[in-house]
Amino acid sequence: MYKTKLGLFFILFTFVLSACASGTPTPPPQQFSAITIDSAAIAGNILGQKTEQTINIYLPPSYNTSTKRYPVVYYLPGYAEATMKISLPKDADALIEAGAIKEMILVIIPGGWSFYTNSPITGNWEDFVVKEVVRYVDSNYRTLPNAESRGISGHSMGGYGSLNIAMLHPDVFGAVYSISPGLFDENGLATSQMYGADAVTKNFMKVQQGILELPEDEQLKGVMSMYDFFTVAYGMAFAPNPENPPFYFDYPYTESNGQLVRDEEIWKRWESGFGGIPDEIVKYKDNLLKLKGITVDYAIQDELAWIPRGCIYFDQQLTAAGIPHELIAYEGNHSGKVKERVSEYLLPYFSELLVGE
I need a surface site. Which of 4, 124, 167, 228 has the fewest CB within 10 A? Predict the structure, then answer.
């Protein structure tokens, strides 16, 4: 009797060990999920912003019933925009079911107000996208891990980010589709909402002065709650200065006897964010020529009137440099038709260009 019980014990013990070793079966990944990545690239920011960033990943209908690998399209939303993650899964499913596009993985990377650039103030968001997110997706999903099977896209701030990242990293992304990107022509900065009138500039400086009069431990909080935070974020991204708290950027204007005085060197740094297009195209022409597709898509009635002008200027400069691309204009405002542009144009564009299995 004792031997029988002992034998049963060892059988049960062996079974438990085996179960522990094999682990609980991993459930199949959800078709649309939110994934948190702890970013080393963003950890260097001096504002104390959280390093854990949430991205959204859409998997095509056949993902959990096949072993095939898929191309990937990365989408960068606009400034503080979060709407695409609501409509994208449903729209992609419908297009795939209708045979309008091939199956692909879609990744949405919210960028807050980072402009998807590397900055000592806000963190290295370009590196976050190019190195950390792409590596995570390739390591955890059945992707085709090469540039010819990766596309990058975005709207507004994300439109700028997608163009800039594609230009800098053609070894990672093979094609780009940019909707209403932040681009300046020769006078874009001066006519933007940031500097379009002296009264706007003077009022911004007045608010800055008010923040400097706050107790020191409240000043950064005051900066982060400024009414015109777009200007603050733009300055932190493109004219950063870690030695200039609490704003952490260099502002191109001072006031003397009631008159605005502009520092031309600082102004050039602000221009080079969304601007500096001719120099960028010359510098990165070889990279741009490596891209399989470059498309810029803008709304004719954009309330940010400098954006259509910037898109046309970008088109002219690419044409002059002999770089293949496409410029598409449509009736609409800045954000009203983004969902339509993505489903009817952006996704079919990548379906045609990206290499699948």
Answer: 4
What are phi and psi for residue 216, nearest 5 degrees? -55, -35
Instruction: For residues 158 and 178, give the distance between their C-alpha atoms in angstroms, rounded to a whole number.
Output: 8
Nearest alpha carbon to residue 349 among 75, 59, 66, 62: 75
- Position 47 in a domain: yes
Kindly report the CA angle at 294 between 290 and 297, in degrees rounded to 5?
170
**Residue 35, strand partner residues:** 55
- Structure confidence by residue, pLDDT tens digits, 79-120: 877 666 668 888 999 999 999 999 999 999 999 899 999 999
Q: In whole angstroms, give the CA distance from residue 176 to residue 294.
A: 5
Stated pTM of the model: 0.90
- Owning domain of residue 122: 32-184+276-353
DSSP structural state of residue 64: G
With 0-12 / 13-18 / 19 or more C-beta atoms within 10 angstroms meaning exposed / middle / buried, residue 72 is: buried
Residue 247 lies in a domain: yes
Q: State both tokens at 338.
A: 């983004």
